[in-house]
């Protein structure tokens, strides 16, 4: 049997036992005892073998898992080391940054806040709030509008209803109080959302609006500056490293308020369509106040649609009229054309190129230069300019910055409109004579203010600025007039306010000096006799000039208070008389009736004719 199995290539099983035959004992091998203990079952041996195999497998898997975890740990450590030494660390918001607003603060020169940003709630209608499950509003839009009107009485009912019926949605109210937000939640309308966002607030309302500008949200939901200093300072106000420090402007909020108030009174008293005013530091070029009326409220959400965002002080150009005459006289004194102020000049009408030029109110056949300024003589000024020559007067105008846009940080800056020039860039004789009394040349009120600062501060023109300048850091500027010429102009301007057309601007104790100007607005067929620009350019105190004040009224009408007159002596000049006593003490200028600029060597020239 065994031999047969071997021949067939088969091996007997190790666990197979010899067959037992009944009654016959199995044969034993010699030398082996029979009684050797109980036998180990074969199945038990197989189980032990399997257990050992599984244990080895488990240990192998555990080793592989630990190895993988080790590799991951090494990679993580290497990544941390790389980020720490090469890359940027994960951004974390510090406590200081969390407390900072998203946009920096703007203040006046004394730290009074003009623009601030803070977290706020808004009311937004989301027409897709319910997605495809039905109408976004549970109640009828008209009923929801009525409910919102109870919470917000000033809400525009028609506009709100249009938004609730719109498929686009939109802001219903940009600024709402937390308690009002809770009442909106109480309406149970899911489509009425209350997003929390950064809000730019102007605590002073419309005050200094043309200086500040406003902000709008861009595509990145960031407040972005528009129009005024908000646009100029946009990067600085949004910079994380800089926005903690408020930006101080040059303006004094108290002076700004007084200027806007007096301009508004003058505008209403004369039924003018607009007004502009500037208060300028003659030694630094800092703008202490600047206004354009009508104004706008930068807190309104639709401020960008306001027609009043146009800045008349820096963007609108006007012919200066007689306010330009002191500039012509100063250039003539500087050039030596006018040496003797007691000399008589021909004041008769001027015939030129088929045109006849006369004085509005002739005072005689001859006038001295002081009389010509006091009585605002066109003819004498024209003859002075004719002797001065077009090249000298034109260069003076250029040196005063009147050929370029006004130097100011604001983006809205009007380009001067010059009279016709020759191909070589010079003026004709007629142009020179017409420009001398303020026609044929249109510039902004800011141009005029900077020019008058140079007239009275010693002859130095400096750029205007809306940034606060630290003491001793004023720009050097450029010399336009001699210091002696500037000294003489202070006397002449003061004489105009005492004896001439500027008497209605003479605020007692403040030694105001200045010049009136009235110019007809040009139209399609020539000058419009019914449309007038009246302005007054002044400085105070004239014994030591500190500030220039320019007031301008656009198309004033004759009123009973002005005795039916529209000219600057009855409209723009009285604004200065009311304004200076209000702002003088704020600016450190106290009234003093015992002081004045010395005009003893010129007084007799006016008094004798009187």
Topology:
Blueprint: H1 2-7, H2 42-85, H3 95-99, E1 106-107, E2 113-125, H4 141-151, H5 157-164, E3 170-176, H6 178-185, E4 192-193, E5 196-201, H7 209-212, E6 214-217, E7 223-226, H8 229-232, H9 234-238, E8 247-248, H10 253-270, E9 274-281, E10 287-293, E11 318-319, H11 325-335, E12 345-346, E13 350-352, E14 355-357, E15 366-367, H12 369-374, H13 378-388, H14 390-399, E16 417-418, H15 429-436, E17 441-443, H16 445-456, E18 460-461, E19 478-479, H17 483-499, E20 513-523, E21 526-540, E22 547-554, H18 573-583, H19 603-609
Parallel strand pairs: 1-8
Antiparallel strand pairs: 1-2, 2-3, 2-4, 2-5, 6-7, 9-10, 9-22, 11-17, 12-15, 13-14, 16-17, 18-19, 20-21, 21-22
Jot down its keywords:
single chain, 610 residues, alpha+beta, six-stranded mixed β-sheet, five-stranded antiparallel β-sheet, 19 helices, 22 strands, 34% helix, disordered N terminus
């Amino acid at each position: 049997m065994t031999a047969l199995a071997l021949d067939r290539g088969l091996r007997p099983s190790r666990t197979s036992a010899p067959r037992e035959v009944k009654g016959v004992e199995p044969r034993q091998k010699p030398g082996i005892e029979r009684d050797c203990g109980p036998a180990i079952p074969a199945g038990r041996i197989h189980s032990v073998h399997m257990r050992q195999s599984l244990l080895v497998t488990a240990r192998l898997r555990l080793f592989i898992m630990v190895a993988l975890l080790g590799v991951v740990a090494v990679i993580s450590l290497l990544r941390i080391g790389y980020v720490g030494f090469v890359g940027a660390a994960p951004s974390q918001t510090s406590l200081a940054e969390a407390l900072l607003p998203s946009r920096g603060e703007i203040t006046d020169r004394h730290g009074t806040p003009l623009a601030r940003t803070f977290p706020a709630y808004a009311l937004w209608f989301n027409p897709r709030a319910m997605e495809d499950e039905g109408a976004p509003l549970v109640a009828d839009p008209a009923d929801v509008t009525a409910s919102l009107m109870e919470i917000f009485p000033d809400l525009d009912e028609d506009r709100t209803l249009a938004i609730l019926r719109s498929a686009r949605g939109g802001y219903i109210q940009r600024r709402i109080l937390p308690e009002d937000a809770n009442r909106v939640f109480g309406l149970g309308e899911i489509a009425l959302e209350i997003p929390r966002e950064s809000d730019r607030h102007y605590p002073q309302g419309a005050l200094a609006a043309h200086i500040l500008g406003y902000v709008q949200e861009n595509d990145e939901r960031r407040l972005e500056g528009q129009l005024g200093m908000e646009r100029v300072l946009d990067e600085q106000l949004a910079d994380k490293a800089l926005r903690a420090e408020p930006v101080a402007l040059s303006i004094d909020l108290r002076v700004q308020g007084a200027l806007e108030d007096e301009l508004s009174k003058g505008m209403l008293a004369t039924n003018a369509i607009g007004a502009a005013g500037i208060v300028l530091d003659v030694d630094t070029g800092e703008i202490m106040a600047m206004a354009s009326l009508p104004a706008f409220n930068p807190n309104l959400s639709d401020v960008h649609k306001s027609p009043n965002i146009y800045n008349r002080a820096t963007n609108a150009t006007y012919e200066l009229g007689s306010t330009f005459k002191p500039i012509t006289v100063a250039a003539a004194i500087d050039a030596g054309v006018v040496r003797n102020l007691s000399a008589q000049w021909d004041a008769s009408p001027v015939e030129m190129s088929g045109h006849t030029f006369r004085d509005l109110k002739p005072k005689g056949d001859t006038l001295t230069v002081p009389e010509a300024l006091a009585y605002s003589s066109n003819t004498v000024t024209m003859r002075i300019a004719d002797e001065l020559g077009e090249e000298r007067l034109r260069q003076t105008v250029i040196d005063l910055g009147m050929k370029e846009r006004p130097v100011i940080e604001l983006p809205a800056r009007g380009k001067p409109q010059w009279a016709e020039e020759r191909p070589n860039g010079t003026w004709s004789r007629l142009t020179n004579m017409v420009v001398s009394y303020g026609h044929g040349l249109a510039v902004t009120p800011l141009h005029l203010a900077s020019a008058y600062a140079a007239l009275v501060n010693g002859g130095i023109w400096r750029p205007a600025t809306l940034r606060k300048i630290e003491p001793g850091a004023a720009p050097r500027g450029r010399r336009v007039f001699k210091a002696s010429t500037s000294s003489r102009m202070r006397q002449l301007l003061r004489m105009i306010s005492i004896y001439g057309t500027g008497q209605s601007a003479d605020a007692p104790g403040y030694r105001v000096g200045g010049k009136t100007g009235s110019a007809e607005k040009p139209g399609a067929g020539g000058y419009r006799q019914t449309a007038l620009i009246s302005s007054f350019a002044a400085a105070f105190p004239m014994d030591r000039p500190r500030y220039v004040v320019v007031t301008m009224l656009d198309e004033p009408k004759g009123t009973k208070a002005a005795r039916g007159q529209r000219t600057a002596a009855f409209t723009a000049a009285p604004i200065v008389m009311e304004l200076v006593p209000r702002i003088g003490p704020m600016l450190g200028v106290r009234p003093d009736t015992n002081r004045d600029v010395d005009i003893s060597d010129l007084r007799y020239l006016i008094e004798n004719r009187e």
